[in-house]
Amino acid sequence: MSIPTITGILLLIFSILCLATGIYAFRRYSLTQSERLFAVGLAMCIAAVGIACGSLDSLRAIPSFNLNWAWYAGTTLGFLFLFLSSMAKSTDQFQLLKRWGVIAAAVLITVIILTPVFPADPSGYVAVILDTIRTIGCFCGFLRYVMLYTSKGTRFSLLMCLAFLFITVGYGILLPQLLDPALDQLTAVGVFIRIIGAGVLFAAFVLG
User: In the chain, is it the N or the C terminus that has fewer CB atoms within a 10 Å radius of its CB?
Assistant: First the structure.
């Protein structure tokens, strides 16, 4: 089995875990009407769609689509909004975050629709810049939950801290491979690390 096929399968698992977290958050939202849970659910669904696009691109399931653009857009926006959901406090802030989250979902859908007319999948320094932005966003989430854990010491903040750490490392490890395609093994390793992070993320919301 080739590295792209293994990567595509692992990305699909990663996407399913993120989608499960999103669905669970929406289910809890329907019971509690917590705006934070709505924001989390939307963020994780956006990320899950972006990751699924990355999986389809790796498997070359839709050859005419340059789905890596949607992969970068979905994962960057999804994990960014997950980070921002931890920053918001007031109802007004969550309402604003909800509106921007809906806009982000619309942007992702637009990117997916327009992928046939986009340039070839990003590579070289363009891919490095996009992955760096995504990694920094996840690292901000890690730092945020480190601060929350040191101040409150809750199990939820500890699990979220670990989840963002694994996801950050999983994206950061792609940087050498993007500069040197010969290091394609790092792609699968990075996704495996992110799967661990997604599993911890799901556990954080289930176990609370």
Answer: N
> What's the mean pLDDT in 120-137?
89
- C-alpha 110/C-alpha 193 separation (Å) is 29
What are 79's two structure tokens?
């994990």
Strands (E), 55-163: none
How confident is the model over 77-96, as a mean pLDDT? 91
CATH number at residue 131: 1.20.1070
Q: Is the pLDDT of residue 48 over 80?
A: yes
Residue range(s) defining the domain that contains residue 153: 3-207
Q: Please tell me the distance from the alpha carbon of residue 57 to that of residue 70, in angstroms, as a whole number.
A: 10
> 81 with 39: CB under 8 angstroms?
yes
Q: What is 94-153 written as a DSSP string?
A: HHHHHHHHHHHHHHHHHHHHHGGGSPSPP-HHHHHHHHHHHHHHHHHHHHHHHHHHHHH-
**pTM value?**
0.92
- pLDDT tens sequence across 160-192: 999 999 999 999 999 888 888 777 788 889 999
Q: What is the CA radius of gyration of the chain?
A: 16
